[in-house]
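ok so i was messing around last nite and threw this chain in just to see what happens. nothing serious, just curious
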Amino acid sequence: MKKALSLILAAIMSASVLAGCTTLEGDDKGAIIDMYLTTEVYDFDPQSSIIDDAQLKALRLCWEGLTTIDENGKWQKALMKNYSVEVDDGESFSIIVNLKDTRWSDGRTVQAADFVYSWKRLLEAEAPHEAAALLYDIKNARDIKMGDATIDDLGVAAVDTYVLQIEFEEKIDLTRFFENCSSLALVPLREDVITRYGEDVWGKKAATIVTNGPFQPRELTEGKDGEDGDAIMRLERSAYYYLDPEKEEALDKYVIPFRLLTNYSTGDASAQLAAYEEGKIFYNGEIPMDKRAELKDSAVITDMMTTHTYVFNTKNPLFEKAEVRRALSMALDRVTMAEIAVYADPAAGYIPGKVLDTAKGTSFRQVGGELISAQADAAGAKALLQSAGVTGGSFTITVRGDNPVDLALADYVKGVWTGLGFDVTVEAAEVDPEGAYVDDDYYAVDDHQAKYDSGEFDVIAIDMNMLSPDAFGALAQFSAVFSGNGVDMNSETYDVYTHVSGYSDADYDALIESAFAEKDTAKRAEILHQAEAKLLEDMPVCPVIFVKDAYLASDELSGISSDYYGARDFKDTKLKDYMTYKALTETAE
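result:
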């Protein structure tokens, strides 16, 4: 039915007079926009490790924090109505933040207590959350994560329903703090929802996800075929996003489209592109590999704050020497890898270009320069391996199985590393076909994510999405105290968990400690550049390309924009003549 309907629609769209989207009346809820938003997403928990750019693009449609970052890299108010400095007496420093009036997707108001719960959740000593260090300026935050204080000691409180009090260890750079508040990891969360459905379940099923952003998931059938074989991600406008239910406000006052519908049963990326070209879908966010070069001039290409990265398990005896890790990195030709991905640049370091150096308008990457050669040095790699006494060995590269680009890159890497004398296998991690059940209710289990979170890999390919526009958050997680993985409360010595790579280095730790303590912005940036150089000298992670996002949009759509992280913003998106489409849908049904 859907395919036939779309063909009819395409014909009508080419012949009809196109009318713009108008204020909604009666039972009209607005445009349903068929699209291929992104590949399947299995978890909408914004505090999970977001290691795939598809998850980033989907989640940023559903959540909103205190601030956002504009196209120029400057923080702007989002949920924050205003703030004021409460105390600044040379000994203590605190602020008061007043929240705007908005509601969750179930109608309950967004409250200061929701931020308190969310931030405490990040800082629980036994809960691994890599973004925890973004909050370390807050009073007692670091001690709580290290098990030296209780969660109730955190300097964050809801002093009124919509008023948040934040106490800091000392006077801080508020600009940087508010930049960090744009991170997905720092959005508010609902304690009652997560407690009711459970930490491992609530973000994986549409029925249990409550969001505070412009859109909410209404259907998620990824990971397991239904009776009709459909796999769907259906996002709908939140009926309460900045709307007062006591007032008669237009539903499309703040968010125009009613529904963003991705029907994965349409097929893979090639089939989705064909559907787009035939007028069956209006937006294509994942262009197939064999068409990327051809469509490069047609696509809208956006830089992301994302680095596609190979993470080594340094606890594996094969990778315990930095020389081996550097040799493997040295052998890769990043120009070739960028050409494979098409929408990418060779990684010149770990931190991509949009991350700020000292202030908006400055680039950490541009100042830091090239720390990794874009060209391969196979001879140098072999010599380095020989000096390390390693001439071969067997290992597996784990990669997301539903991402053709990641798989193609892994195949290239396999060939290069095999040429160095290693026996390399590429493991395409899929969604567990058996899934998991809670009270007879199915939810998907992403094997790639599970292996990364548990550290059960030799080498794993991930999209390292920057936590905020500040390089500190991305670099700090390789220092155990700042990793966000907390402490083992069952050990006698309260052992601190390291990064999932297992990397630990006292000199690197000292650099991160120094950067955290440094108040001078320029000196702090200089220390962070030293930390990045040290990280890439030790090479627990091997950055390969800086990721760009690319999409195709029909002429029927207008009002698409992108945020600073490189994700879409569809709040103002309009579909021309959507009433004709709506009428056809109702007739066909």
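not much to say yet. The longest strand covers residues 300-312.
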